[in-house]
Amino acid sequence: MEKYSQFRDRGSGIAPFFPITSPPAGAYLPVYIFLFILKLPFFITVATTYFLFLQWLPLGPLAKKAMLWMILGVPGIWWIDLQIDGVKKGSLGRGNADRVPEPSNVIASSFTSPIDSLYLAAIFDPIFTVSYPHTRQVQYISLLGSILRALSGPQEYPPPGARLVDLRTLVAEHPKRVIVVFPECTTTNGKGILPFSPSLVTLLPTTKIFPVNLRYTPSDITTPLPGTYLSFIWNLLSQPTHCIRVRIAEVVYNTGKFADLDKKERYLTNSLDTLGEDPAMMSSTETLTNVTSQNDEIKPHERRVLDKVGEALARLGRVKRVGLTLKDKAAFVEAWSKRRR
Q1: What is the pLDDT of residues 152-193, one digit of tens each?
Q2: Which value, in Å, is the radius of gyration of the alpha carbons in the chain?
Q3: Among 331, 315, 330, which residue's Cα sits nearest to residue 192?
Q4: What angle do CA 212, 213, 218 make, to 5 degrees?
Q5: Residues 50 and 69: beta-carbon distance below 8 Å
Q6: In terms of C-beta density within 10 A (0-12 exposed, 13-18 middle, 19 or more buried), how is residue 28 classed?
Q7: Which of 53, 68, 107, 177 is 20 to 30 A from residue 29's alpha carbon, by CA?
Q8: What pLDDT, on the 0 to 100 scale, is given for residue 257?
């Protein structure tokens, strides 16, 4: 692994992009094969029924959440270890409801597995977004799109024709929904927190930001490498059970001096305020490239907000923040792919 030493964090030696290998099955291999064969038809049936049909029907949030819990239940994801900063176990309902995300709040989540989006959807019924390292705007995507993003390669820039909007506008347009942001922009193996996109600094100072960290046992269902569909499904369905360790930090506010966008970015934002109404109104990758230089200029007070959220995620996950970026992951994926050929 010395040839991949440049993809370890220089300060800590952490390698956040390396896939986590499963322990040898040994004598339990026949059991794992039996469980996989048993669960696979149920998993495919429940998942396809929901994503192809039920999600488009006018069902209430409770019915949709029940179906999502069925999708989580088939692989054996039943045990949820939930802890909230400042709240003792068993006392959440005793005047502590404001310590969990509510409509019009934003979740800044770790990003390690397709299960991240599935679990958050089953609990909060949120709106999912994609962040990019060179723009403060985000892309609004569906739950299925967010799940597939965890199995896709790192994208430094939005795809051509992507519809983008800043989080402040998205919160205003959907006051009855929670907004989920993955500020690291790409998946890791859960061993480190990557530098953040500046998307969170567009929020108003009154908007609550909840750092949420999710970890898994066994941890081999993380997907730091793109395209690992088969290994992910095998690891997910061949194990008897999985545990999700969920940690929610105290609220963070964007309390620094609010920096307005320049006229060019204002034009982009205002053009996208009617998101979904006019397909002709969308920002292009070429336009974003022109304003990249300004978006990269994160002011000190904005950096403090991003650092506070990043430090909270690292503390919740009992890991460290690393200096490796999305561009480093793209280089790692390329090097790893050449090794596998």
Answers
A1: 999 999 999 999 999 999 999 999 999 999 999 999 999 999
A2: 20
A3: 315
A4: 150
A5: no
A6: middle
A7: 68
A8: 55
